[in-house]
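Blinded run. Sample ID left blank on purpose so nobody reads anything into the name before looking at the predicted structure. Input follows.
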Amino acid sequence: MSTTSFNPFETEFVRIQKPGELKLGERVVGSKFTLDQHKLKYAHFGGADPGVPSADNRNAGEATNYGVDERAEVGLISRNIKLTAQISGDEPSRHWGGEIKIVKGFAKAEIQGVEIEKFGKDQLGSYPIHIHEIGTFTAGTLLVNANSIHHSYNKCITIHSTENVTITNNVCARIVGHIFYQEVGDEHNTRYQRNLGLGAMSNDFEIYAPTSTNDEKRKKLIKDHFWAGDNLTQDADSRDYNQYDGLLIPNTDQQDNPTHGSCFKPDPAGAPGSKNDPFTSNLVEAQPIKAGQLRCPSDLYYVEPPSGFWLINPGAVLVDNSIGGCQGVGRAYWYVPPAEVLDTQKYPPAKRQELLNLKHKVVGQFKNNRARACYAGLYGETEFGVRSEILNPRAGGVPSGHPIIATFEQFTATRNRKRGVWLRPNWYVLKEGRFATNAENVTLVTAGGLDGVAPGVWSLLRGLRGGR
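Blinded prediction complete.
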């Protein structure tokens, strides 16, 4: 059951008995679920379905939560087919799970209705599901649908230099790093629909959020505050106990990818509530990766804020997805087209120009997606050391093309720690959105003149409803 607070750690894993009927007198009014093991640790919001954000529920009342859908999602984790990893707890294998890698040359690949637990490795390019450098494949030969991927050591579903991929109906829960990850940007014609992502967690968390050198105190802090409702990891006496250790996992991404993070130094003074509070600002002293450097110096840590969707290619279609929880300064939906291409050996001039023009690509359909418990919901520019560009969609995907309006429709953002939406006005339409209990619901940054955005650009808020 997903978090409905500001806290990404309040998603809970519980076992349920066979559902029964919920009756009012003799009339069946719903389903009743009884937990088989533990009580819920946290409150989770529920209520009548307010409906998809639209003109029909813009003036809805208390009975349907004023048209704002804040209900907790419930994702099915267990499946009849289960793939898991045996983790000994020893240092060499502590973060060494399985992986499914689909490469060029396959006839047909279908991954459907599978439970995938403790997959991915603290190793470059090792993910639970990795669609790797296939290019363009024949329609109908690849299916990734209705899987449950949880307690991952490295991302959830990664698409790398492959076109025409559709990812549908998957549940990803407690994932280290980005949940749905585009690796380079040449992942054209990608579609994500009806996916649920719960808990994009930081790599190396305890390195830049120091707790205590006292091991017993550390264990108590983790048990009481860090995924306290995760009954798959908390109760060693339970038959479901899975020995997952999601802490101190290094980020092994290719640090000179076209879109990449920066090198940071831990701040031991990062106490809660201070300007260096690791829950909001992570690390200090950002140092960009330079051409020819390829990796961070040994005394610094490579950081990409863990996000629900890491969208290097803005043409991705996103419909009916929901993200609940990003640690630190991660975003639910972060558009990050490349600002530079450092590896001139791997990417020749024509390829580099293609990647640098991604900021001008027409933004794909974005409709009826939800976000909560992240630093921000929908984001369209760089921050916190991420080396990316602002969206600037144009006809033909080139700088000389005329501007193309990008529409973000029926977006719901609640209980994000900073912003529901942050966009720099560039012919955007934010339509029929619902925003409540974010620190800042919608921010449209000024534009024109010296910042390089053409004078006359605008953004339109239409049919929105917001609250505190």
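Unblinding after everyone has recorded impressions. The CA atoms of residues 208 and 266 lie 5 Å apart.
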